[in-house]
Each structure stands twice: as C-alpha cells, then as structure tokens.
C-alpha cells in the first residue's frame, strides 16, 4: 500500500473514531437529558399526588392537598336536594382519607350563589355540620357574590362559627 493510500485509510479510521466518540458523547448527553426529564416528570407526578383531586363533579369538587394538610371542598351554584346525597357520600369518602385533627378543612365558597330565604336554615345546618367534623381548623372562602357573602357571614355568626372567613383560597384546587 502506498503512502497516500495509508494516509487515506488512516484518515477514514480517524474520522470513524471521531464520529464514534462524538456519537458516544451525543448519546451520553442525550441520556443525561433524558434522566433529567424523567426526574422532572417524576417530581411533577409526586407533587400532583400530594395535591390530588378526589371528586370532580359538575356541582362540586373535593381535593386533598397533603403537602399543605388541607381538604378542599368547592360548590358551584346552588346545591339541589338530589345532589346533596351524592355530595355527602363523596364528602365522607374524602374526609375519611385523612387524619382530621391534623388537617384544615377549606370550604371554597367562591362560586356560591345566593340562596333563597327558605334555604338559609340549611346553609346554617351545613356550616354547623362542617364545624362538627373534627378538623384542626376550618376556613370558609368568601363568595364573589356580595349577597351570598352576607348570607354565609350571617349563617356563620348565628352558629358561633369558630373557623375563619377569608377572602381567597390559600392553595387552589
């Protein structure tokens, strides 16, 4: 083999080795990025597990936020009698998943609509029921509706509510 052929062959081997090393570096870099992505996804899944929505129905939602040690309930509009039974079953199932004395119960009234005057006593009974569940603390989030806000505030005053009536949800659902 003449000198030029050997140089050409050596160049091909050098190029092949260079490409192989570059390829290995590329795959190692790719593998590192893949591991980083996997860890990020795993952390997102773990975070989501800590803030899981337990019930998501048209009229209401319930969630447990393990990291904040909160159980959230949120009612949309007026709860009808036919919805109340399912709500109570879902509520019981949800609150039985946590140690109540360690958790705060958050009643998100943001989307609560004004209730007819004949329903106000049931609103009081509901708030009294929430107070009797044995949670460490109870937060009631004020509705956007000023009328509903006054109705809930009055109901809470009549039952000597020991929780707190707050402006916004501390941790969203």
Whole-angstrom Rg: 29 Å
Can you count the helices? Answer: 4
Q: N-to-C SSE series?
A: HEEEHEHEHE
Tell me the domain tally. Answer: 2
The poorly predicted ranges are 45-50
CATH topology of the largest domain: Transcription Regulator spoIIAA
Give the overall average pLDDT: 80
Q: Kindly provide the name of the CATH class of the largest domain.
A: Alpha Beta
Compute the number of strand runs.
Answer: 6
Question: How helical, in percent, are the residues?
Answer: 40-55%
Explain this structure to me?
- With 173 residues, this protein is α/β, with parallel strands linked by helices.
- It has two domains: 1-50; 57-166, STAS domain (Transcription Regulator spoIIAA, 2-Layer Sandwich), CATH 3.30.750.24.
- The chain is 51% helix and 18% strand.
- A six-stranded mixed β-sheet has the order 1-2-3-4-5-6.
- Helix 3 (120-131) links the parallel strand 4 and strand 5.
Quick overview of this protein structure:
With 173 residues, this protein is an alpha/beta fold. The chain has helices at residues 3-50, 81-95, 120-131, 146-158; strands at residues 51-56, 60-65, 70-75, 104-108, 137-141, 164-166. It has 2 domains: 1-50; 57-166, Transcription Regulator spoIIAA, CATH 3.30.750.24.
């Amino acid at each position: 083999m003449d000198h030029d052929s050997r140089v050409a062959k050596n160049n091909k081997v050098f190029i092949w080795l260079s490409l192989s090393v570059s390829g290995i570096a590329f795959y190692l870099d790719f593998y590192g990025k893949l591991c980083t992505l996997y860890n990020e996804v795993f952390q997102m899944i773990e975070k989501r597990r800590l803030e899981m929505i337990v019930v998501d129905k048209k009229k209401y939602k319930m969630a447990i936020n393990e990291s904040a040690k909160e159980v959230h309930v949120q009612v949309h509009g007026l709860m009808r009698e036919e919805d109340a039974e399912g709500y109570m079953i879902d509520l019981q199932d949800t609150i039985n998943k946590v140690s109540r004395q360690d958790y705060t119960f958050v009643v998100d009234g943001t989307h609560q609509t004004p209730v007819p005057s004949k329903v106000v006593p049931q609103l009081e009974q509901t708030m009294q029921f929430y107070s009797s569940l044995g949670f460490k603390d109870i937060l009631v989030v004020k509705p956007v509706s000023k009328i509903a806000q006054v109705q809930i505030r009055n109901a809470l005053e009549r039952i000597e509510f020991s929780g707190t009536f707050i402006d916004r949800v501390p941790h969203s659902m």
